[in-house]
Write a structure and sequence with these properties.
The chain is of the alpha/beta class. The protein has 2 domains: 2-92, Ribosomal Protein L25, Chain P, CATH 2.40.240.10; 99-207, Ribosomal protein L25, C-terminal domain (RNA Polymerase Alpha Subunit, Chain A, domain 2, Beta Complex), CATH 2.170.120. Helix content is 18%, strand content 40%. It has helices at 16-21, 43-53, 111-114, 184-191, 204-213; strands at 2-8, 24-31, 34-42, 59-63, 66-77, 84-91, 98-107, 119-122, 126-131, 139-143, 153-155, 166-167, 174-179, 197-200. Strands 1-3-2-6-5-4 form a 6-stranded mixed beta barrel. A 4-stranded mixed β-sheet has the order 10-7-9-12, with no helix packed on it. Strands 11-13-8-14 form a 4-stranded mixed β-sheet, with no helix packed on it. The chain starts with a strand and ends in a 7-residue tail after the last helix.
């Protein structure tokens, strides 16, 4: 279990800038049966925990003498340096199913891209899942080796799931696919030994999240 120490916080509003200058991250913890509480934690330790846990792995948040099983949610980032400036910790019940978003990890290499110059199109980057907190996966593997020819697709139903985890998406939704080179320029590049092009297609949810993260909003 990943642990993070925090302390109750009395500094609120615009004054939280003084905490950041001292190397602390303002945050809040709340959840079912847990009153909202302003807290602060070491910026360095938070980045370490965020890298290890992401937003889909349970973190034990230690505040004073209390411990909460939490998911890190709604992390706000600085508009220019992309550093976290605020985070929410959502306390969960370990005996109750929850829904959260888990990222896809694309592994392996598509033969159609490597050998034939195909275009890899990532349609989905994450998916909502339902599970008990203890069963939540950190990420879900998508094997690109399944994409051997132009038109090959990996669907939601093709992705193996850990026990106790259910994806809240249609089984026939496309996660990733390979398209043939679309232009004469692409074909010419292929003849010269190009290894293919990779294209990321952002979902509407991701675009809204990216827009939100660039807003100059000051959180307490």
């Amino acid at each position: 279990m990943i642990e993070l120490n925090a302390q109750p916080r009395i500094i609120l509003g615009s004054q939280v800038k003084s905490l950041r200058k001292k190397g602390f991250l303002p945050a809040v913890v709340y959840g079912e049966g847990v009153d909202s509480q302003a807290i602060t934690t070491s910026f360095v330790e938070f980045e370490r925990v965020l890298q290890a846990a992401g937003e889909s792995t349970i973190v034990t948040l230690c505040v004073a003498e209390k411990k909460y099983n939490c998911l890190i949610t709604d992390v706000s980032y600085h508009a220019t340096n992309d550093k976290p400036i605020h985070a929410d910790f959502y306390a969960v019940r370990m005996d109750k199913l929850i829904r959260t978003t888990v990222s896809f990890m694309f592994t392996g290499e598509s033969g159609a891209v490597k050998n034939d110059g195909g275009i890899l199109v990532k349609v989905m980057h994450e998916v909502e899942v339902e599970a008990l907190p203890k069963d939540l996966p950190h990420e879900l593997d998508v094997d690109l080796r399944l994409l051997s020819t132009f038109g090959s697709k990996v669907l939601i139903k093709d992705i193996p799931l850990p026990s106790g985890v259910k994806m809240m998406a249609d089984a026939d939704e496309i996660v990733v696919l390979v398209e043939a080179p679309r232009t004469e320029e692409a074909l010419a590049a292929l003849e010269q030994g190009a290894t293919g092009e990779i294209v990321d297609v952002k979902t509407e949810q991701e675009e809204k999240r990216a827009a939100k993260e660039t807003e100059p909003e000051e959180k307490e």
